Amino acid sequence: MSTYSPDAAHGGHGDHGDIQLDELTLEEEIVRRLGDASADTAEYALWLGDDALILAQQLGWWISRAPELEEDVALGNIALDLLGHARSLLSYAGSASGRSEDDLAYWRSEREFRSSQLAEQPNGDYAHTIVRQLAAAVYMFDLYSRLRTSSDETLAAIAAKAVKEVDYHRDHTVEWFRRLALGTDESRRRLEVAIGHVWPYVGDLFRDEPLIDRLDGVAVRPSSLRARFDVVIDALAAETGITFPDADTARGGGRRGMHSENLSILLAEMQVLAREHPGATW
After folding, report:
1. Is residue 258 situated within a structural domain?
2. How far apart (Å, rounded) are the C-alpha atoms in residues 59 and 50?
3. Does residue 208 belong to any structural domain of this protein?
4. Residue 82 class from Cβ within 10 Å (0-12 exposed, 13-18 middle, 19+ buried)?
5. Which residues, including other chains, have CB under 8 Å from residue 277's CB and lie 6 or more apart?
6. How many structural domains does the chain have?
7. Is residue 252 a part of any domain in this protein?
8. What domain range is 190 assigned to?
9. pLDDT (tens digit, 9 = 90+) per residue, 166-218?
């Protein structure tokens, strides 16, 4: 696995005296729709878009709080990547009902969000964030790898862009997992505590809902991703001696709008500006 490099990951120049920035508007960063989504496809896009949006919000909290300056940059970049995925997916989801990505991000209630319960787990200390992001990134990499062959051209295009970025997210998080597991006694202890708190919610990523049966050829069946996920996690366990729980004990239900108070707290912070000043523009 490669370690983090701002130049390699984001196409920068090694010579810091010759950095050039291309003009790119936020609107141009969205993968453009090739048509409006059906109601079922829009619901599936919400699953994926809400996961990316909530994780982006979570990781943004670490900027200026990460354990080292390089991690401020790394987590900020990962959060921005995820926000870009969320914008494309929510824009597509909203096409089925005439809503914008902002409408979906800022004007839905907690019960209307379709993010997994894993995504809403608190940042905790840095080990908790790394464990949550490890599970999310390993899952997302295989998900987007498979979704590139979706019969829905818009989802396939979003996946083709996202998988390149999630590949870096996965590598970066695996390196941090190793660093904590094989570092000091204290870092290993905290990692083990984090796994105990976070891992029960991993199963929510892989639960099949009736929606999947209606999207044959469009969506990726969540349960079909578990075997490859476990291969990566088992390899990490063997390398580091860290034990992961065998069973997913949380009730799940994030895809059906069943969430904990953690999501309501996060949404209150994320949505407050839009709701206090509706229609405001820069």
Report:
1. yes
2. 14
3. yes
4. buried
5. none
6. 1
7. yes
8. 35-276
9. 999 999 999 999 999 999 999 999 999 999 999 999 999 999 999 999 999 99
